[in-house]
């Protein structure tokens, strides 16, 4: 029962299905099943690590400049992580770097990562008990896991949504949007 | 001259950033449920995208790609400050209506990822004209989405009650946004393919 509750909570907190965050990135990555899952995993890495760092921004930044400076600080955090992950990948070997760098390029700056950071920050501002590194880290991981779940949903129907049985005008992106809408409706009902 | 004409109109019909490339769709799905929200998003998107892309076009191409992407993101984050300040001073409601999607517009994929492929290969003058039409393409879709969703979801137009018997409240929800955008995307593709096939026939 606890597991079912957890799954429902994870779905209900899913940032793609409830807030449409990262939908564009998902469609950029939707050229194949592998691309989708790999991009989702890299986005999870970004949301998790970046969330932990944003905790320090949130507690150290004076409230007088918070509204205007938060975005720049978050952008710099993601920028540093972007360069760091590419550097680490480079040291794993030339072949792997060439094969996987595109996932890092797609995953760094997008609504999924930035939206996660802002959502966590807003929740922490509303509830002081959430204001600690572990919670930020776990919330980032949860958001990433939600992105992976949404990618799995999309990957499961990917072939059918792109098949010739779907009318040409609706094949691919439009069918995927309608499909995500139906899943989102189901998740809304779970809330 | 023909190429220039094509590129100018591409942003509206041929390569609409929302309906063709599905860029910047999160704010439309969540916030694009009324004309007022649509106007707030249009102001934020237009000003941030136009200014950021113009400034970003001066970033030297000799700089490595990764660093350029970071610079583009930092530029748009900085541009977001005066844009937001102006909105706070003159349209304070718009900030509340859009919420976290305000800063998210600053890191939209058109500015950060697609700017080089779509704009920075062109000469400055042509780039500006093309950019203006891409922005107009976004604005038209945004306004249409906001108006239709507001009318059918809440039975109002610009918050004034309209004469409608049945409302579909789900259209104002995120899932309604997904489904409406998907349908609009399909219709857009149909229109685009009809226009293109018509053009090909007339050329033959």
SSE inventory with pairings:
The complex is a heterodimer of chains A (about 190) and B (about 200).
Chain A: H1 2-12, H2 15-19, H3 23-28, H4 33-60, H5 63-91, H6 94-108, H7 111-126, H8 133-161, H9 173-190
Helix pairs in contact in A: 4-5, 4-6, 4-7, 4-8, 5-6, 7-8, 8-9
Chain B: H1 2-14, H2 25-31, H3 35-56, H4 65-90, H5 92-98, H6 101-106, H7 109-112, H8 115-118, H9 124-154, E1 156-157, E2 160-161, H10 174-203
Antiparallel strand pairs in B: 1-2
Order of helices and strands of chain A: HHHHHHHHH
Describe the largest sheet of chain B.
2 strands, antiparallel
Instruction: Assign the structural class of chain B, choosing from mainly alpha, mainly beta, alpha/beta, alpha+beta, or little secondary structure.
Output: mainly alpha
pLDDT averaged residue by residue of chain A: 87
Largest interface: A-B, 51 and 45 residues
Our estimate of the beta-strand percent of chain A is under 5%
Number of strands of chain A: 0
Shape of chain A: globular
Helix content of chain A: over 70%
Order of helices and strands of chain B: HHHHHHHHHEEH
For the secondary structure, the number of strands of chain B is 2
Radius of gyration of chain B: 18 Å
**Distance between the amino and carboxyl termini of chain B:** 20 Å
What's the end-to-end separation of chain A, in Å?
16 Å
Structural class of chain A: mainly alpha
Q: Radius of gyration of chain A, Cα only, in angstroms?
A: 18 Å
| Quaternary class | heterodimer
Low-confidence stretches of chain B: none
């Amino acid at each position: 029962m606890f597991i079912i509750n957890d799954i429902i909570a994870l779905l209900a907190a899913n940032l793609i299905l409830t807030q449409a965050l990262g939908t564009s990135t998902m469609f950029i990555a939707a050229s194949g099943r592998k691309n989708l899952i790999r991009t989702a995993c890299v986005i999870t890495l970004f949301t998790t690590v970046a969330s932990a760092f944003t905790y320090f921004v949130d507690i150290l930044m004076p409230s007088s400049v918070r509204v205007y400076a938060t975005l720049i600080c978050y952008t710099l955090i993601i920028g540093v992580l972007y360069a760091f992950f590419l550097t680490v990948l480079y040291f794993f070997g030339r072949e792997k770097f060439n094969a996987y760098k595109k996932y890092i390029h797609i995953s760094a700056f997008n609504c999924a990562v930035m939206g996660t950071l802002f959502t966590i920050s807003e929740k922490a501002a509303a509830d002081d008990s959430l204001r600690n590194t572990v919670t930020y880290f776990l919330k980032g991981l949860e958001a990433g896991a939600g992105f992976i779940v949404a990618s799995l949903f999309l990957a499961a129907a990917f072939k059918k949504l792109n098949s010739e049985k779907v009318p040409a005008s609706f094949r691919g992106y439009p069918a995927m949007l309608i499909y995500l809408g139906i899943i989102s409706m189901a998740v809304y009902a779970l809330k | 001259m023909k190429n220039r004409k094509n590129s100018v109109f591409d942003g509206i019909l041929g390569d609409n950033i929302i309906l063709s490339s599905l860029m910047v769709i999160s704010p439309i799905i969540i916030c694009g449920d009324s004309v007022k929200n649509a106007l707030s998003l249009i102001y934020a998107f237009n000003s941030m995208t136009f200014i950021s892309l113009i400034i970003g076009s001066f970033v030297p191409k000799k700089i490595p790609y990764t660093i350029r992407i970071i610079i583009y993101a930092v530029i748009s984050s900085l541009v977001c400050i005066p844009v937001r300040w102006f909105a706070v001073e003159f349209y304070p409601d718009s900030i509340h209506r859009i919420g976290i999607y305000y800063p998210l517009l600053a890191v939209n994929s058109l500015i950060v990822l697609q700017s080089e492929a779509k704009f920075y290969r062109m000469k400055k003058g042509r780039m500006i004209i093309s950019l203006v039409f891409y922005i107009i393409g976004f604005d038209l879709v945004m306004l249409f989405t906001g108006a239709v969703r507001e009318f059918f979801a809440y039975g109002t137009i610009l918050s004034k009650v309209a004469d409608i018997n049945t409302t579909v409240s789900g259209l104002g929800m995120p899932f309604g946004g997904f489904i409406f955008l998907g349908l609009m995307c399909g219709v857009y593709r149909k229109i685009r393919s009809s226009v293109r096939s018509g053009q090909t026939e007339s050329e033959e």
